[in-house]
Design a protein that fits this description.
Blueprint lengths: L5 E7 L11 H9 L4 E7 L5 H11 L4 E6 L1 H11 L5 E6 L5 H6 L5 H10 L2 E9 L2 E3 L2 E5 H11 L5 H12 L5 E7 L2 E7 L1 E5 L3 E3 L2 E2 L11 E6 L7 H9 L9 E6 L1 E5 L4 E4 L2 E4 L3 E14 L7
Parallel strand pairs: 1-2, 1-3, 3-4, 4-18
Antiparallel strand pairs: 5-6, 5-18, 7-10, 7-16, 8-9, 8-15, 10-13, 11-12, 13-14, 15-18, 16-17
Helix pairs in contact: 1-5, 2-3, 6-7
Length: 298
Amino acid sequence: MTNKKRHISFIINPVSGTTKKKNIPKLIEEFSAHSAIEIAIRFTEYAGHAKEIAAELSLNGNTEIIAVGGDGTINEVVNGIGDSGAIMGIIPSGSGNGLARHIGIPMRAKKALELIKVGYTKSIDLMNINGELSANVSGIGFDAIVAHKFQDSKNRGLLSYAQISMQEFFKYEPQTYDITVDGKKYQYEAFLVSIANSSQFGNNAFIAPKASLTDGLIDVCILKPFPIVATAIVFERVMAKTINNSKFMDTIQGKKISLKNKTKKYHLDGDPRESDGTIDIEIMPSILKLIVPEGKNI
């Protein structure tokens, strides 16, 4: 970055995840002290507010917008920025922090701020899913059901998510999906179908170990039904970044995807959504400038 004055706006979601954020404004002020950085801090007040703030800041010519929250907050900020050209950064403070972990952004706010101060940027791909942008991992099936249940839960954090996942696992029935990838048609019975721009859901649970934010491709990850006795093995492979080598996983890469299923529930970077039974996805190459660690292959 040059030495010209930088204008950086921080959008803080005070209720994302379980991380305490009361010290983050102070850290931000310390980060900008005695530097050519002008800061503004905005707090979200309701669902969708981060998107509204980011859109407003982008229109007003603010060139750097930092999302302080989890993947849901990041998704809102991404959708607010769109193709405006604004630079985005991340201070991870959600339940899973999937995108930040994929990129290699430090989980500690102070360290993440140091990365922002350096200000090295890279243009990354986004996915357009039924008219909304997705930066990380979206999908349909078991994880979408869990996302909807998690939204309605009074408790946040990994423990609550794990409890809901366990409750739903034993009663969930795999579904049949009609999948079209770049014009080629497939039909699968699947436990879930993930649409991955990056490698993981969050908490280092890797559904698409080979996914890249800069390859211009979407990884369609189809986890086929597996017996109860194989559950531990499947889970172990997800955590070990080897699920792509499992006989229960098929991965198809493409630029334009359509999913059709009677189930209307899906999730957008972990946030619940509903469709009319069809989900249309298209890659948008190199559309977002993101602050990342220099030299990191993302």
